Amino acid sequence: MLFVPDADGGRGDWRQFRDWLVRQQLCGFRRLSPGDRWHLVHCPGGECRDLGHRAPGTSLAALAPVREEAVMLSVRVEGVSFAHGAQTVLRDIHLAARPGEFVCLLGPSGCGKSTLLRLLAGLERPDRGRILVDGRPIKGPGLDRAVVFQDYSLFPWLSAGENVLMAVRQAFPDRSRAFHHETARAHLARVHLEDAFDKMPAQLSGGMRQRAAIARALAQDAPVLLMDEPFGALDAVTRTVLQDQLLELWQGEGQEEPQRKTVFFVTHDVEEALLLATTVVVMGTRPGTIKGVFAIDLPRPRVRRSLYPTVTFQTQRQALVDLLHQGLPLDADRAA
Ligand SMILES: Nc1ncnc2c1ncn2[C@@H]1O[C@H](COP(=O)(O)OP(=O)(O)OP(=O)(O)O)[C@@H](O)[C@H]1O
Ligand SMILES: [Mg+2]
């Protein structure tokens, strides 16, 4: 069982965990009376319940918000600019993803792909412009958007299985403990980590950690999936298997297209983008801007062996590589 520390009593990893709960809008800080110490409170639907000094032993399951039914969501980025101090990282970004689109973001290192994903996740606020999910401006992180970060961020104090379990509990708060465990194990098995349930992140390789992070994001079952180079650290075989699994999941065997997740997927790999995407967005650098948006109408299912040698695929690949290189010194791009 996990315990939520009170607002000023948490230290080290607990403080990270507490901050994560706040970012996920599962908890907030409140003073119960003027001059009182800060308390961590649970805010399901805005109704706050004290989890502070008087009730420090609340289990994580009690923190899980009621999950809305899975829906398809559109995402719009309207005139977003963002700076880190004096450095303008993104300038006037406009993007629109219809519900169920698979958008791949391609661009040279440092052009602001991760920054854009953090903005979409609600972890940063735009300096100008706004981001709408399902027509509503986002105000912070939310359970409608699952994120796989570039640096495979698992909670280091939880085992791989517990990391995934946390997402399953959030997604299905009303289901049984047995269901939670079974689902978490199934998600780990999908990324070939069935034996790693009890392993701590420090005991896993970088690629294994990334796979566990992917399992956790998929377990959240959010309608919007934000993935930052999720397969970048993986060996070629695992990468191929996970690309296919992601496509299967997104295509939704037996489902209608409108039930698909809306995906934003950062990659440096042009072939990966062409294999996965309905839309490829090519970004330029200094500051990050959009160089081009391309609808990828290659037929599905996209099977590497038959797709890659085709003239259409090779032509589109070359066009994307050329655009990526345009205006860049030769050694500044890892994309080709
Ligand atoms: N926390 C930060 N503080 C200051 N500058 C930052 C911070 N995070 C990113 N930057 C800067 O913002 C720019 C964009 O970074 P970002 O990580 O979004 O690039 P990226 O396109 O994801 O690159 P890569 O392909 O290497 O992952 C870079 O110049 C980077 O140095
Ligand atoms: Mg990045």
Your description of this structure?
- Among the domains are: 13-63, no CATH class; 75-144 and 222-332, Rossmann fold (3-Layer(aba) Sandwich), CATH 3.40.50.300.
- Helices cover 30% and strands 22% of the residues.
- It is built from nine helices and 13 strands.
- A hairpin with a 2-residue loop joins β4 and β5.
- α3 (160-171) runs parallel beside α5 (206-219).
- The longest helix is centred in the last third of the chain and has 16 residues, at 236-251.
- The chain is globular and about 50 Å long.
- The termini are far apart.
- The chain binds adenosine-5'-triphosphate and magnesium ion.
Major sheet strand order: 9-10-11-6-12-13
> What is the annotated CATH architecture of one domain?
3-Layer(aba) Sandwich
CATH class of one domain: Alpha Beta
Structural class: alpha/beta
Largest sheet: 6 strands, mixed
Distance between the termini: 48 Å
Instruction: Tell me how many strands there are.
Output: 13
Which term fits the overall shape? Answer: globular
Rg over CA atoms, rounded to whole Å, is: 21 Å
Q: DSSP strand (E) fraction? A: 15-25%
Organism: Pararhodospirillum photometricum DSM 122
Keywords: ATP-binding, Nucleotide-binding, Transport
GO molecular function, one term: ATP hydrolysis activity
Family: Belongs to the ABC transporter superfamily.
Notable traits:
13 strands; 336 residues; ATP binding; binds adenosine-5'-triphosphate; ATPase components of various ABC-type transport systems; Rossmann fold; six-stranded mixed sheet; 22% strand; alpha/beta; disordered C terminus; disordered N terminus; four-stranded antiparallel sheet; ABC_transporter-like_CS; ABC_transporter_ATP-bind; ATP-binding; single chain; binds magnesium ion
